[in-house]
Design goal:
alpha/beta, 8-stranded mixed sheet, single chain, 11% strand, binds iron/sulfur cluster, 16 helices
Length: 341
């Protein structure tokens, strides 16, 4: 209670916020999807199966350079932008211009949600280093083409590794630490045996390594939970096991409503990276700041904190995570995040 009071006092002095839900942006980060298109056909992905293209508010398109530039001009306090979400960042034809402009304006760009890195032009690979792209997480669920292609359908393992080597060569040429590279490995029954080899390869490629639990254990069950736990250092091999044990969400996306609101490629404010059910208005037309302070956005935050019941016009009402979210102590997690900023 004391910690909450301290936070509200600090924010009250700045902006007269009344409750945690009223704090509209913690830090100086937003998420803007650079491209919702993807060339791969990953079977669990709503993009790869073309669900978003046909049925959701995410749609199918690229962020334009003009909209990116205007967004930065209108929101000078934003210093960090996450560009990846549902699609493949590198399919955006304006990416090089976006990176150059962000670098010139001291905006840090990252792709921590993940990229497949299959099709990248040479000048873009160089641009990642030249324009000091901050962090890049590459989704590689296997350590060989035979295993990789079972989930990353249409992907070319050797091409991805070749692109990583080219980035590393540019890092040497420019004597740069950036982008920091991470290998993300989603664990399935068909690839778990390659965890040790993937970790070794990541180390040789000067990459960090992150093993991620898969969201559909019924479709893609793992085979040896003890081996997976040993290899990953995780105490759980399944997401529900993790959430039961830790009493918190495996991936607490709802916090992004405060810490890194998600904007779709066409300007729709989605709030978090999971939401594809509806939007909170268009930031390119109505402005980011005014939408973050809108009644609808405030109500969504109150809903995920368990302070308001569901309401038909709020996208979170359709989200399967909501029931799990209100059972966890999101307020405590949010307070911890605010204290760190
Ligand atoms: S309830 Fe779902 S849609 Fe709403 S903020 Fe949380 S993860 Fe996003």
């Amino acid at each position: 209670m004391m910690r909450l009071w301290k936070i509200l006092k600090k924010y009250w002095q700045r902006r007269k916020y009344k409750t945690l839900a009223h704090i509209h942006l913690v830090g100086n980060q937003i998420r803007v999807e650079a491209s919702s298109k993807c060339q791969l056909k990953c079977p669990l992905c709503l993009t790869g199966t073309h669900y978003h293209r046909k049925h959701s508010v995410v749609g199918w398109g690229h962020l334009s350079f003009e909209n990116f530039k205007r967004l930065i001009e209108q929101n000078p306090s934003i210093k960090h932008i996450e560009l990846s979400n549902y699609g493949e960042l590198f399919l955006n034809p304006a990416l090089l211009k976006i990176m150059a402009y962000a670098h010139e304006h001291n905006i840090r760009l990252s792709a921590i949600n993940g990229v497949n890195l299959n099709d990248v032009k040479e000048e873009v690979l160089e641009g990642l280093v030249k324009y000091q792209f901050f962090k890049l997480k590459v989704s590689i669920d296997g350590a060989s083409q035979a295993t990789y292609q079972q989930y990353r359908v249409g992907g070319d393992f050797n091409q991805v590794i070749a692109n990583i080597k080219k980035i590393n060569a540019y890092k040497q040429q420019y004597k740069s630490r950036y982008p920091k590279l991470k290998w993300q490995f989603i664990i399935f029954g068909h690839n778990e045996h390659e965890l040790p080899l993937a970790k070794q390869m990541a180390k040789k490629l000067n990459m960090g390594f992150k093993a991620k639990l898969n969201y559909s254990p019924k479709k893609f069950p793992i085979k040896n939970a003890a081996f997976v736990k040993k290899e990953t250092g995780l105490s759980a091999a399944y997401i529900d096991e993790y959430e039961k044990e830790k009493k918190q969400l495996y991936s607490p996306a709802c916090l992004q409503l405060w810490t890194a609101p998600q904007v779709n490629w066409d300007g729709k404010l989605l709030g978090c990276c999971v939401n594809h059910f509806g939007d909170f208005g268009n930031v390119f037309e109505e402005g980011l700041s005014s939408l973050l302070q809108s009644e609808k956005y405030l109500y969504a935050k109150q809903m995920v904190l368990g302070e308001q019941p569901t309401r038909a016009d709020i996208p979170c009402t359709q989200c399967k995570r909501l029931k799990r979210v209100v059972k966890t102590d999101l307020r405590k997690q949010l307070i911890e995040v605010i204290e760190k900023t």
